[in-house]
Each structure stands twice: as C-alpha cells, then as structure tokens.
Amino acid sequence: MTQSTIVLGLGGMGSATVYELARRGTRAIGLERHGPAHAQGSSHGKSRIIRQAYFEDPAYVPLLLRAYERWRDFERECGAELLTITGGLMIGAPGSEVLQGSIRSAREYGLAHEVLESDAIRRRFPPLQTAPHELGLYEAMAGFVRPEASVAAYLARAEAHGAELHFGETALSWEPRAGGVRVTTDRARYEADRLIVTAGPWLPELLGDLRLPLRVERQVLYWFAPRGGVAPFLPDRFPIYIWEPRPGYAFYGFPHQEGAPGGVKIAFHTGGTPTDPHRIDREVHDAEIAAMREAFAERIPLLDGELLATATCMYTLTPDEHFAFGLHPQHPQVVIASPCSGHGFKFVSAMGEVLADLGLTGATRHPIAPFALTRFA
Ligand SMILES: Cc1cc2nc3c(=O)[nH]c(=O)nc-3n(C[C@H](O)[C@H](O)[C@H](O)COP(=O)(O)OP(=O)(O)OC[C@H]3O[C@@H](n4cnc5c(N)ncnc54)[C@H](O)[C@@H]3O)c2cc1C
C-alpha cells in the first residue's frame, strides 16, 4: 500500500510539501483553514527576497543552492515565472551583521560577490543614498520570488498529481495512533501514516504537549509611489536590498513590480510587535507609516511619494531566529515545520523536498542538523 501523509496548513511550506508528496506518487491529503493562497498568514505580499550570501549563517547556503535549483525545476513544470533575478545589496557599516554575515557566507562557499564602497553604491544604484562609512555586499544571484503565485502553482500541481486538498477546513487536534496519526477537523476525521504540521503562526496551538519557545510577530509591508516615477526602481537596474543602519534596526526593499498595487515595496525586518493569528491588528497606523518614512527619508529620498498600499503579515520566530523543524521527539510519525523566523519563503522549493523526505522516511540527505527542533529542549 502506498504511504499516506496529511499536510496540516497549505501556506508556503505546506503547499510545496503536499506537491512534493503527490509528485512522488504517495497519497497526500492537505488541510487548510482558509482558501488557496490567502493573505491571512505569512505567505502573501507579492514578493519575497531570495539570496545566497546568507548573513544569518553559512549553514543555510547548501539548502539555498538547492532552493534555486528547485525553483527553476518547478517553474519549468508549472510554466509560470516565480523567481526573478535582480541582484541584491546587503548594506551596513563595516562589522554590521547584515554586511559581515553576508561576506562570511560568500567567502565560505565561494559565492560570486563584490563589496562596494558607498560612492560605488550611489553611482550604480542612484536611489540608494548610502552614508560615507557604509558598504554593500552585492550579489548578482539575488532577487525575489512571488509568494501567492508560488503557493497557487504548488497547490494546482499537487492536485494534478493526485493530492486531495481541503480548503475552509480547520484542524482542531491530532493524536498519534498505532503506526500512524489521526487529525480531527471541524468537519471530519482523517487517518494517515504520517502528519506534517506546516501551520505557520498557528503552529504554537498545534504542538500538543511539545513545548517550543516560539513567538509570533506582526510585520507591515508598504508600497510607496516614488516621486518622479518608477523608472529608477525597475528590476533591470534596481536590486533587492537589506539595509542595517544600526544594530537591531534593519529594513529591506524590492524593485518595482508589475501589477497591483504598483509602486515600490519596503518593510522593516526588525521591531515587529508580538501578536497571534487570532488577534493580529490588521490596521496600519499613522505612527507606523511615519516610522517607515523616517527610515528611508534620507536613505532613499525618491521613495517619499504617496503611500499606495499596506499589508500585515506574521513572522513565527525561534529564540535564535534560526529555522526549527524535524521529527516530533515523542511521535516520530509527526514532522513539525514552519518556525522560519521571518526568512523562510525563499526556501520553500527545497523545504518541500526536505519535509517530504522526513515525512516519508524520517530522514533526508540535505544538511539540516543545524535546524534541529531539539536544540531548545
Ligand atoms: C512581512 C513578511 C516578509 C517576509 N519576507 C521574506 C523574504 O523576503 N524572504 C523570505 O525568504 N521569507 C520572508 N518572509 C518569511 C516567509 O514568508 C515565511 O517564512 C513563510 O511564508 C512561512 O510559510 P508557512 O507555510 O510556514 O506559513 P503560512 O504561509 O502562514 O502557512 C500556514 C498555513 O497553515 C494554515 N493553518 C493554520 N492553522 C490551521 C489549522 N488549524 N487547520 C488548517 N489550516 C491551518 C494557515 O491558514 C496557513 O495557510 C516574510 C514574512 C513576512 C510576514
């Protein structure tokens, strides 16, 4: 009999996982409380940065290289453009985490990169008015992926490979059973050999008796209309960037993207407010908008035009802000995923493969030891 797996939560991680399970010819059941590719969790807002010179830790680089390959494979399968290469700049003072960490990963893995002085950054990317002491690591392979389009494509291809997907259905609990697992939803009960929990910011309420020190943060995305038009921000001349003007204070942005809401997207990576998916404040307040404008007023002055749109989104963070996933320590037929600390989307193409491996065999050939759940035990 072919093995059966339930994937609980069909956001970025879950959609890629259910696709991968179905593609391998196993029985895959997906459960999702909202509709396909919705905006209530962590996988919406049109764009997500992807890059290889990973400031967070060089341990991610092998998985990133695999993610690039899998994005390209999946684009060929689904026929959509999901990954756009624009180049990327990691900006900070010498010794800052974003700059130094990126240089470290680039050197350790021999990734093509340049370190640019402030003058060179201003010449090459005129909207970015870096301070004289700031440097930038430029990496040509960076760019962005499209979250909603990716999730929708994974779900469509999962169904095409025979996955059974249930939308508008909330899982209430799961329990281990002899040789398997049972999930109870607000509509039905499902039994399978394995369960993969990819519930994003809802994960803390689905861990059962497993104690993981997770916290959920609210973050806001902003789209501004640049003064004088979008031309200097077009993706053929403007990179994705992460800018750390001082320790613990970082924002990031994208080139202009076609389609609604127009303009140019920018957001803070730091300073999110504690929340949970049931009480998140979806309103964006004047003081928040003012803080965002203040961040770019002197650094990207062209951006200081009309605010076109905002969106709220959630990070699911671990104490060290690294990923945490793997087999449930007491119930190895259950895989816990999702705590990706606000930087997981770029990986979903590879994570689908990793989580399907873990679900089907309990192991994977990919180097995931640094992300073990058990480090918090
Ligand atoms: C503002 C913002 C900016 C980001 N920027 C980047 C970036 O530039 N680059 C990058 O790589 N990453 C970025 N990230 C992080 C990345 O988007 C997330 O790591 C990733 O989307 C998490 O995916 P997920 O599948 O774990 O969670 P989600 O997408 O939230 O999916 C969880 C799913 O589970 C469903 N669910 C939950 N509970 C239940 C239940 N009981 N029953 C049924 N279904 C349930 C939810 O409805 C949801 O669809 C950003 C995140 C945010 C919020």
Characterization of this structure:
The protein is α+β, with helices and mostly antiparallel strands and 377 residues long. The protein has 7 helices and 21 strands. α1 (12-23) links the parallel β1 (4-8) and β2. It has helices at residues 12-23, 61-78, 97-108, 118-124, 147-160, 286-297, 348-361; strands spanning 4-8, 27-32, 48-50, 83-85, 88-92, 114-117, 135-139, 143-145, 164-167, 171-177, 180-185, 189-192, 194-197, 215-224, 240-246, 249-253, 264-268, 273-275, 307-317, 326-327, 334-336. The structure holds flavin-adenine dinucleotide (FAD). Residues 8-14, 31-34, 40-43, 45, 48-49, 170-171, 198-202, 206, 219, 221, 267, 313-315, 338, 340, 342-346 line the site of flavin-adenine dinucleotide.
Q: How is the topology of this model organized?
A:
Blueprint: E1 4-8, H1 12-23, E2 27-32, E3 48-50, H2 61-78, E4 83-85, E5 88-92, H3 97-108, E6 114-117, H4 118-124, E7 135-139, E8 143-145, H5 147-160, E9 164-167, E10 171-177, E11 180-185, E12 189-192, E13 194-197, E14 215-224, E15 240-246, E16 249-253, E17 264-268, E18 273-275, H6 286-297, E19 307-317, E20 326-327, E21 334-336, H7 348-361
Helix pairs in contact: 1-5, 1-7, 2-7
The structure holds flavin-adenine dinucleotide.
